Amino acid sequence: MPNGQIMKALSGFYYVRSEGNLYPCKGRGNFRKKKVTPLVGDYVTFETDVNDEGYILGVQERRNELIRPPIANVDQAIVVASVVEPEFKTFLLDRFLVLVESKSIQPIIVFTKTDLASEQQMDQMEQYKRDYEALGYVVIMGSVKVEQNMEMIIPHLRGKTSVVAGQSGVGKSSLLNALHPSLAIETNDISKSLGRGKHTTRHVELIELEEGLVADTPGFSSLELHDIELETLRDYFPELKHYGEQCKFRGCMHHKEPKCAVKEAVASGLISAYRYNNYMQFYEDIQNRKPRY
Ligand SMILES: Nc1nc2c(ncn2[C@@H]2O[C@H](COP(=O)(O)OP(=O)(O)OP(=O)(O)O)[C@@H](O)[C@H]2O)c(=O)[nH]1
Ligand SMILES: [Zn+2]
């Protein structure tokens, strides 16, 4: 029985890529009793009959799944933030990083629109770039408009399934188009001038670049920390995880506990105050979230 990965779903067919070929398949298998709906990105087993019609027989367990865009088994998120227009905010970047990490997706950070930034703004961004790199993140900074540094993303796509994520207007669609011009995804300037909504009837598709697979649609531009538990939030801040090992209390949340190594590291400048403040802000947001029934 061949194995493959679903590249797109359209009009009741799942297009399964296997050994360089694409097989249109319908669902027919045990997974349907378990109410599993195949998603783009799923690894499946399938068979083809004498008429070359394909049937999905089983869906392998997912590493993760996103709802918007509906896609499974994402390895990597290209988290896009613009230096200006809209102005860079660590708070928003950190939210994306937390969300992405909570899904076991590897983030790479891309700062865009350097062509619009003042020298002073660039100095500040260089500092942020160093900060995030020191935490272990890959950070690429440049401009889609003047084609600066965006090619540095390409080697990071190799062998992975990636999505693009980030706040509205930072340049996600522009970046996707730059990576793969034939995508021709509508960017803000076009859709605004035509006065119609964006991504209205688009289906999700994994695009095969030479290096790897990229979802052809920007993912989660707005997000809530809905599914994250208070106790796991600290795990998504690499520096809190690192210094937290030396806290007096094992379950230290780095909040009001005494002898907290994280708070000491913030006080001595080993942890950036803005990162800790963002952690506390998310902490409170999660704590205040209404129970869901
Ligand atoms: N000057 C400059 N403009 C850019 C750059 N990247 C994108 N833009 C512009 O920024 C605007 C928003 O870009 P989009 O690619 O539509 O942004 P998006 O993140 O996909 O936005 P949403 O679809 O709303 O989430 C467009 O007018 C782009 O032309 C850049 O590097 N430099
Ligand atoms: Zn602590």
UniProtKB/TrEMBL annotation:
The GO biological-process annotations, alphabetized, read as: ribosomal small subunit biogenesis
Q: GO CC annotation: what is one?
A: cytoplasm
EC class (word): hydrolase
Residue ranges annotated for the EngC GTPase domain, each copy included: 72-221
Q: Subcellular localization, per the record?
A: Cytoplasm
Q: A single Gene Ontology molecular function, please? A: metal ion binding
Among its keywords, does the record have DNA repair? no
Self-association and partners: Monomer. Associates with 30S ribosomal subunit, binds 16S rRNA.
What is the name of the protein in this document?
Answer: Small ribosomal subunit biogenesis GTPase RsgA
- What is the source species? Pontibacillus litoralis JSM 072002
UniProt lists the gene as rsgA
